[in-house]
Amino acid sequence: MAQEWDPASTDPAQWPAGRLLSAAARRVERDWDARLAAWDLNHASLPVLVHLSRSPLSQRELAAACAVTEQTMSRVVARMERTGYVTRTPHAQDRRRLVLSITDEGRAALAMASDREPAETMVTRGLTDDEVTELRRLLALVARPQPHPSG
Which region, left, alpha or beta, applies to residue 84 given φ > 0 means left and ψ of -120 to 50 means alpha? Predict the structure, then answer.
């Protein structure tokens, strides 16, 4: 017999998988943002520093690398420019195009904020090593790219 779900229940065990994943993601995002706030960063700005630490990029390239719209990236970059973590400079060959680069302050913030252990602990607290391994395996399956349905 199929599992009966009660999406109105206060017990997460009764929620459909999509709601569970969404609620878990929001909880982790809130916790992670609280930690990153020490460097005036959040879950959206940290990947910007990661990508720019590898090489300067245009805003369009950076948005594609972070899988967000250019409009969203514009807001993230504007905030990071105010904090002194990134700069925008004209492209050497095309003066209409701007290139985003990480600053020394941005590199320092990235070095401090990107410690993997606190992030892993935040997500996996209360789980055994075997449960963490299984969670990672299942999340990797759920997160893998899927073909778009046609029609």
Answer: left
SS3 state at 90: strand
Domain count for the chain: 1
CATH code: domain of residue 78: 1.10.10.10
In a domain, 61, yes or no: yes
Q: Is residue 146 part of a domain?
A: no
- pTM (two decimals): 0.77
CA atoms of 37 and 49, how far apart (whole Å): 15
The owner of tokens 């779900």 is 5
Instruction: Look up residue 136 and give its amino acid.
Output: R
Domain range for 70: 36-114
Query: Which tens digit of pLDDT belongs to each residue from 49-77?
Result: 999 999 999 999 999 999 999 999 999 99
Residue 20 to residue 28: CA distance in whole angstroms: 12
